[in-house]
Amino acid sequence: MTKLDINFKGLQARIAFVVLALSLLFSIGSTLSQMYLNYQRAVATSTTLIESRSTDAARVISHALWVVDLELVRRSVKGLSMIPTVCRIEVKGFDGTQISEVNSTSSHCDANHQVLLSVQGNNIGTLNMVLNRYEVKREALDSATPLALVHFTEAFIITIIVLWVVNRLCSRPLKQLTNSLDRYQSDKANQSCVPVSLIQRGDEIGKVARSINAMQSRIRDDFLQKRITERELRQHQTLLEEQVEQRTKALNWQSNASSLLADISIQFLSSDSHNITQDVKQVLPSMAKLLGGEAISWYAFDAYRAERRCYWPQDITFAPDVVDLSEMHMIKRWLADTEALVVPHVGQLGEDAINERTWLRHRGILSIAAFPLTDGRKSFGMITVANRHLPFIWDNNKTLLLKRFATAISEVMIRERNHVAMEQLQEELIIANERLKVQAETDDLTRLMNRRPFKRELSNHIYEGIKKNHPVAVMMIDVDHFKAYNDEYGHLQGDDVLTQIARILLTRTQEYEGTVARFGGEEFAITLPPKHAAQLDDLANAIRDDIAELAMAHEKNPDGDYVTVSIGGIITIPDDDTSDSYLLEAADQQLYQAKDGGRDCINILDQLEKK
């Protein structure tokens, strides 16, 4: 081993230093442990010797004190003081006799050993012996010194051997590996710079070499992944720029739309119905540009005719002067809903808009959007935007713009109309309220009244029955296994069945001046006035027979092959405690009994017979 092979700041020197330090610590620990054991052994030996000598001397001293032979006591004490580890011997008699012998006054004399002196069971004094622990420690140290020298020599030799082994097995290969890594070039990551001899080693150096070799492969993979990531980032950046551009366009569009609406609002504030057409013409080009339409028109309604009032551009050819809306049912429903109508492509129109689709295709219109001019009760015009060549690219912002534009025109027209047609509006409001009341109390499917007016009519019958002591009749009708019918034939066919049954109920009930209502789902209710209440059972049989004559097929009816009904009812003379809810509940209970009885049957509780 030469000086050049040793780097006192390197791992080799550190390992040697650690080994030397650990060896020295081990030697020191072993020496201290041996000294401690020697000390404990010396203490135990001295203690045993003193206990043995003190026991023997105690019998002699006890007898000498008993016979008052003080000279014998002194000789005995002198003999005990000859022990090397004893500092002081002291005999104290309970009669005041005291004899002591001092060998040393060292501060280490701190271990007392006391023996009680007694003769014939009588305690006559004590024998105290004080040990010198320092002397015990010195003897232990003297015995451990050669062992410490042996341990320190072993530590030094082990350090020299470890230093050589580390240099041979670790330092040289690591230096070789370091030199190889110093020659590594990042632009040649696909080439290995680790010597094969190091890679093939089976120890930790070989593991490190193989790890470095694997790291070069990962560097190459990471480099390729970095290139891929950079490419993806560029793609994301391009996408983000496109989104920013689209968002900027949308914001610019909204800004232009808001500015145009503000100008329209200011212009229309001072406008009246005589100048409104000209004012609208001025803003139509800007509105068409924002909405992306080839043409934009304003139509006014006259009954089911739409007359063109103004349009843009002036050379438009596919927008007629007059449009007949009488057969365009979808548009009429749309006008009733007063919502935006957007048809991006005429091919998207359903079967309920055949007339509209035919008309648009005849005119060569590909896309159309419209919003009605309305006063809140009915529509009196509409704004339309149309394209012939490209489908609409439409969104909620364009719908909102078209709606606000139509609202601005409507407000001007309403403001003018309000002050010349107040009485007409009031009359129409009354009519509308009546219509709403009828709609609220009428079932949409069967056109029968619903639960609320029926209960009101039943309450009138109860009041009349109490007043004149006449009977009241209530009947509940339920279609048997109607859910199974819907599952088999569909809800549209089920609605047709309910409509036919409702027609039979209405026709038969009118013969008895009664009232029929749809209570919900497949359930109906009938009440007869007091003068016909007793004929409730006849009415129930007639209804059941009429429905049977229809012979409406019902393959999923476990009780037959046709649609049947179950009927439950009650005939009673009301009193002050009778309520409409009570009678309906009683009739409903009879209906459930009819269903439990096998369905397709009648169960009328006639309390007149009981009375």
Report on the structure:
With 611 residues, the protein is α+β, with helices and mostly antiparallel strands. 57% of the residues lie in helices and 18% in strands. The protein is built from 16 helices and 15 strands. It has helices spanning 11-66, 70-80, 133-182, 196-199, 204-269, 276-291, 329-337, 354-363, 396-418, 422-440, 451-468, 482-489, 491-511, 536-550, 580-596, 607-610; strands at 86-93, 98-102, 109-119, 122-132, 295-302, 305-312, 322-324, 341-343, 367-374, 379-387, 472-479, 515-520, 523-528, 565-572, 602-606. It has a 6-stranded antiparallel beta sheet, sandwiched between helices. The protein has a 5-stranded mixed beta sheet with strand order 12-13-11-14-15, with helices on both faces. Helix 1 packs antiparallel against helix 2, helix 5 (204-269) runs antiparallel to helix 6 (276-291) and helix 5 (204-269) runs parallel beside helix 9. It is elongated and about 155 Å long. Pfam families: GGDEF, HAMP. Keywords: Membrane, Nucleotidyltransferase, Plasmid, Transferase, Transmembrane, Transmembrane helix. GO terms for molecular function: diguanylate cyclase activity.
Q: How far apart are the termini?
A: 133 Å
The number of helical segments is 16
Q: What share of residues is helical?
A: 55-70%
Overall spatial form: elongated
Write down the overall mean pLDDT.
Answer: 80
- Note poorly predicted spans: none
What structural class do you assign from the helix and strand content? alpha+beta
Give a count of the beta strands, DSSP E runs of length 2 or more: 15
Strand order, biggest sheet?
A: 7-6-5-10-9-8
Radius of gyration over C-alpha positions, nearest whole angstrom: 59 Å
The largest pleated sheet is described as: 6 strands, antiparallel
Strand content: 15-25%
